[in-house]
Design goal:
Elements lengths: L3 E4 L12 H8 L3 H22 L5 H15 L6 H9 L10 H10 L3 E6 L3 H10 L8 E4 L10 H11 L6 E5 L2 H9 L3 E5 L16 E3 L5 H14 L1
Parallel strand pairs: 1-2, 1-4, 2-3, 4-5, 5-6
Helix pairs in contact: 1-2, 2-3
Length: about 230
């Protein structure tokens, strides 16, 4: 039985707050707050465009969110500074548990795909720069269907694109909305909770598994599969 894992990229494998270093050079102590609002607005703009059926790719959402955050926090960036900050999204670092976790999952025989709101080219670039592209069979992007997670069509597209069986397709994500979207579309889903301060949404959908790191992800999925088979 072949199991296919779709790894969310931004916020799950790649630390979006890795941009704080560049922000500190420009705005100093306000960098962490700026990064948080920028990320929240980036996701909000993707959600809005998905609901409105007014798709623009994720880099547009990122640029627009940067402009909003700068205006909201009264920072007047030059065009060069904006370009530097937007470009920083291609060199964001992977979380510390990622390389070991991906290597173990691949060695265990799982089919690994990167599955992202980002455009395929941008995702290939950020994964390569973070040193983790080699672990994935391919990148599946929402850009191919013109909408964003958690639209059900995105998850159905993932299953089709990877030629997976729905019952053996798993999403791996730190984003609660993404986990819920995958579950609602019929996939299984692992919520990566790296911090106890992060709370999962109290909806009717709950993660198939919760992990605090992806280092032992393959073992936990295997144990779940064994338990499910016995039951």
């Amino acid at each position: 039985m072949s199991i296919t894992l779709g790894f969310d990229v931004y916020g799950t494998l790649i630390d979006t707050h890795g941009v704080i270093g560049e922000l500190e050079k420009i705005i100093g102590d306000d960098a962490a707050r700026f990064s948080q609002i920028w990320r929240e607005k980036q996701l909000e703009y993707a959600f809005r465009r998905g609901l409105m059926r007014q798709y623009k790719n994720f880099s547009v959402c990122t640029r627009d969110a940067l402009d909003y955050t700068a205006a909201f926090l009264n920072h007047n960036f030059s065009d060069q500074q904006k370009q530097t900050l937007n470009s920083a999204y291609s060199t964001l670092p992977a979380f510390g548990d990622v390389i070991a976790g991906l290597a173990a999952a691949k060695d265990a025989g799982f089919n690994l795909y990167a599955f992202s709101n980002g455009q395929a080219e941008a995702v290939h670039t950020v994964l390569s720069n973070a040193g983790i592209r080699e672990y994935f069979a391919d990148v599946v992007s929402v850009d191919e269907v013109g909408t964003f997670k958690p639209d059900p069509e995105v998850y159905h597209h993932f299953v089709r694109a990877t030629k997976a069986q729905l019952e053996n397709a798993w999403l791996i994500s730190s984003n609660g909305f993404d986990v819920i979207g995958a579950l609602a579309a019929g996939m299984k889903a692992v919520w990566v909770q790296r911090s106890n301060a992060v709370v999962f949404d109290p909806w009717e959908y709950q993660p198939t598994l919760i992990v605090d790191s992806i280092r032992d992800l393959h073992r936990k999925i295997d144990r779940w599969q064994i338990g499910e088979t016995k039951s």
